[in-house]
Amino acid sequence: MATLVSDPLVSRRTADFVSQDHRIYIDGRFVAAASGKTFPVYNPATGDVITHVPEAEEEDVNRAVLAARRAFDDGPWTRMSPSGRGRLLWKLGDLLEQHLEEFAEIESLDNGKPFSVARVADVPLAVDMFRYMAGWATKISGKTLPLSSGYDFHSYTLREPIGVVAQIIPWNFPLLMAAWKLAPALACGCTVILKLAEQTPLSGLRLAQLIDEAGFPPGVVNILTGYGEGVGAPLAAHNLVDKVAFTGSTEVGKLIIRAAAGNLKKVSLELGGKSPVLVFPDANIDEAISGTSSAIFFNHGQCCCAGSRLYVHEKVFDRVVEGVSHVASDIRLAPGLDPSCQMGPLVSEEQYQKVVSYIESGIAEGANIAAGGPVSGVERGYFVRPTVLTNTNPRMKVVQEEIFGPVVCAVPFTDEDLERIIKRANDTVYGLAASVWTQNVSLAHKVARGLRAGTVWVNCHNVFDASLPFGGYKQSGWGREMGEEVLHNYTELKAVTVAL
Q: Which is the catalytic residue, given 303, 304, 341, 409?
């Protein structure tokens, strides 16, 4: 049985929502899973079950896909004007903003992140994404093309919605990832089946209520809760789905590609990372310490672009490591809704065990702990102390593999050969993000150009905006999220030529 959310830190409004009889959203209606099955949702700060949500399976996937197919092929969505779609997206952004505090609280309770962070980052950025894409709904256009042959033809291109889109999102930024996926797909005129992460379904279910309140036509947005094998796999393989968009691990991304091969549906992937952070000796060291600490410890290190490999020039290595270690040691671990919380728990028992095993692996392979370690000192919940490892080498698992927790490997460099430094930073299967810390403008641009990463920040890290494209090179994925570039994920390009 679920425990009633009676914590004095939880508002009555949030407690009432969490205690609801939760339903999935299909064809404009809130319904139970066809099987009647549910599964538990945990509070990561305590490990307690706080509610249950429907366990959707293949029958529910089929119902949702058929609803989305009808809404796209026969329904009002594709016939609605772009400005009409834009107004609905803007209205959804307004509704979300009106419930900002509530969503921040739900996100903190469900995911574990600090309420203070969700309130100023997750929810406002989600609001901004809906509003930004509302503007793009009226600006998706093709081009008129002069043919090189010179013959008497009129040629132009059209950008048209790709169709029915399956979207699968992760648990690290549940609401924000829903916005990143839904907003551009809807702006382009697609219909959507959104699978929420089983670890963090609550903000997405609350968002479904706002989507219904905003007046989106039935079938345009369908929202499912369930496990990967029950929902994600049949969605990715479904022959009536035209496109699958996935954010998550590289391992699962490869499974998505294989599942999508049946009808050669389009695929976009935002996957893992092992992002390098390069601190040069001329950097503003105080800013570098603060910024590189945030690069790895923000969101408990549960960021695909977390700066988990810290390369520091030997001249300033000791000072930077000491500074980052001091920041790590001072971070207060507490439940996300505790006003004193600076870092909450990891999202689940599984993730906790994974991160702790990486720390223990690093120690076993010879790494030294400059701060943190595998024991949190917190009696309950999935807490891991922010950890700084030194004396690592490129062959260690902690250096090569994505940990997805608050663990950074600090490595000195001495070589003044810039190409060699860049090669070291690029020595990973990933290529999602990187940051460079220097006051030398020319050096910053040279390093940014040489890094094989979809995003390079200079003297900053984790800067996001709805207008900035985000995605990776190599095994960090295919395609881009956000900005004008994301529209290519959800449109097909058609060339039309008319003989004059």
A: 304
